[in-house]
Amino acid sequence: MKCAICVPTHNEPEEVKKKVLARINETVGEGHIISTVNDTSSQGKGWALRECVNSVKDADSYTFVDGDGDIDPIFLAPLVFYLNQGYDVVVGKKELPKTFKRKMITFFSRLWIKLLFGIGVDTQTGIKAFKYKPHWHLDGWAFDIEILWDAKKKGKKILELPVHATVSSGKSWHDIASTLRDTIKLRFGL
Question: Can you give the pTM of this predicted structure?
Answer without folding.
Answer: 0.91
